[in-house]
Each structure stands twice: as C-alpha cells, then as structure tokens.
Design goal:
mainly alpha; homodimer; 8 helices; DNA-binding; three-stranded antiparallel sheet; 181 residues
Chain lengths: 181, 181
Amino acid sequence: MSAITQSFILHFGEMGSKWGFNRTVGQILGLMIITEEMINAEQIAKTLSISRGNVSMALKEFQSWRLVKTVHIQGDRKEYYTAIGDIWKMAFTVMEERRKREVEPTLSALRDVLLTEAEDDKDVYAQQRINELHDLLEQATVWSDEFQKMDSANLKRLVKLGSGVGKVINIKDKLIKNKEN
Amino acid sequence: MSAITQSFILHFGEMGSKWGFNRTVGQILGLMIITEEMINAEQIAKTLSISRGNVSMALKEFQSWRLVKTVHIQGDRKEYYTAIGDIWKMAFTVMEERRKREVEPTLSALRDVLLTEAEDDKDVYAQQRINELHDLLEQATVWSDEFQKMDSANLKRLVKLGSGVGKVINIKDKLIKNKEN
DNA sequence: CTAAACTTTCAGTATTTATTGAAAGTTTAG
DNA sequence: CTAAACTTTCAATAAATACTGAAAGTTTAG
C-alpha cells in the first residue's frame, strides 16, 4: 500500500466514523473510492489488516447503504466490489440513507407526540417547539427527495453554487413577488 | 414530567446520538428546547435521572457547540441554562460545528495527501479521486459559511425552498447564459 | 453428487465510549 | 475570612460497540 493510499484510508476511516459508519467500514469505502479496479473481500482484508468476517459484515452494510456494487468476474469464483458512482452521488446517497434511518423514525415519533392532547400550558409550549422541529425534518425529506432525482452532473453543479445560496433566496423572493403582481 | 415531554426527550436523545452527541447530551438539549423557562443543573439531573457530574460535562460540551446559553438569576446562586436561538438557528449551528470538528481536519489531511508526489499510476488515480473529495468538502465549507451569515428568518425561508432546488439550478444556468451573451 | 472454494454468521473477546459519585475546586453571603 | 452552596474533575466502573476466527452455509467445477 502506497503512502498516499495509507494516509487517505486512515483519515477517511476517521471521518467515516463520524458519519454513521464505524472506522473499518469507512476505511473499506475509502479504499474502494481510490482504487480504480474492483477488489475482492480477501484483498480488502489483507490490505486493511482486518478479519475476513469483518469485511463480510462491512460489505453487507454497504449493500443496505447502496454505496457499493458487486460484480462476478468471469473465471473467478470470488465476488468483486467497487464504489457505486462518483463522490457527489455517494455523498447524497449517504445523506438520503441517513435521513431514512435517523430522520424518518424521529419524524414518526414527533407526529405521535403532536397527536397527544396537551395537559397544560407547558405541554402547549412543548408542542409548538416540537411542531417546528417536525416541519424542519419534513422539509429535510423534501430536499433529500429532490437530490435523489438529480444526476451526478447536477449534484456537482448544486454543490458548486456555494456562496450563491443567499442570492438564490432573493431570486425566489422576486419570483414570488412577480407572481403576486 | 408529562407524557409529551417524556416521549419527546426519549426520541430526541436517540436522534442526538446519531448526530454527534451522546444520548444524554441529546436529551438535555431536547429538554431545553421544549422548556420555556431556564433550568438549572439540578433540575436537569433530576428530570432525566442522571448524575450531577454527567450534567456538568454535558453543559460544558454544549458551550463548545454554541447551543446553550447561561444566565445568572438574581438572588439564586445556581446557574441557569437554556437553548440558544430557535430550531432553525440551532440546526445550522450544529452543521457548522460538525463541519469544524469533522470536515476541517479531513480537509487538512487531504491537502497533505495531495501534496505528496504520486509514485505510480495507481497513486495518480487515487489523487484524482481525493481531489474531487477535497473540492466537495471545501464547497461544504463555503455553504456553511453562508448559512452562518443568515438569520433565523432567512434560514427558515431557505429550508422551505424545498422542492424548488432543482429549479434554482436552472435559474442559475439562465443567469450565466445571459451574462455570456 | 462431492469436494473445493468461497461467503456468512455469531459467540466470545477486545476496544471504545458513557456514567457515576466522591473529592477537589470555585464563588459568594455574611 | 469562612463556611455554605454550588460546579467541575476524574478514577473507577458500566454499557455499548466493534472485531475475530472458527463453524456453518452456499455455490460451482468437475
């Protein structure tokens, strides 16, 4: 493993551990991202010095995250794996999958709470705040849905909008005003 | 503690644990969000059935996350705490703080890797992918900076843009095209 | 059908992270 | 200044999470 690979994998794994995966899962994803060829489970285990069982578990997790694709190579009994799509697509896929796992259940719980009848003023205040949070999370779902419909090229353009965000809001405002007139 | 409070805190804590805090820290934040009055450390410990020491540590963490403000109440030796700002401001504050903690160090590590000389074709490929990731993370910084400049009202408007994201990109395109002509 | 080549599972263990509570530190009323 | 009222720290411990490797399961070549 080259110095570049080594260093990248280490840091990407570290970052992965803050983004919903464990260190090992992050490292495997990092390895796949910077490896042009497809790789098999044994190569992963050997490269990262982790057990074969651990690799198997990580690959299973990737499947549920829609981040890795599997290929059978002619004349080889092993399965081969590679990262699905480019970095922009992957970033938004992670966003959407996290939304499903984390936001969705919370949203459902908040809805239940909002249907409970308030017993006193404190409850009324609480429900107002919970309602705001509910709206915020629901809106996050709308955004994420929109991202899922976009292809890599558009996602990349969106990301590059950058400091134009503030302006975009103004544009929206103007459009609305025009409609009103 | 009312049924509403109880249920909300439980779920918000769960969500917090996926968003960079531990369960307890999340629960405390949840409690503060739905409590109109300021509360003191003892009340927090009692309400959530956790130790006084744990509360102290959580409050210290909140300070570094800029999510809680402290107030001295006249005629009381205890310190009182409450969530800083509304839910929109808090959401973007969490985003910015996570960026500082997680993206910033990765970005710095990636820059180092990009400065390392490639030893072979595999390294060249790796550096291309690393460069893409670097650009993506750098752009995340630009976005986050922009959010920090916005007030709650504008953040709320931004969030509500929702399904207009796709259209916004098209608008941007048209503007660019007009300039080019 | 059989055995070799592979993958998955999971109980046991290691590692990491969170919590407690007692001791040390700090602040303020009197 | 002193003691009471509070907050913080941190070593010990509990709890949660991750990892290993051997056993069980699956697939395919012959």
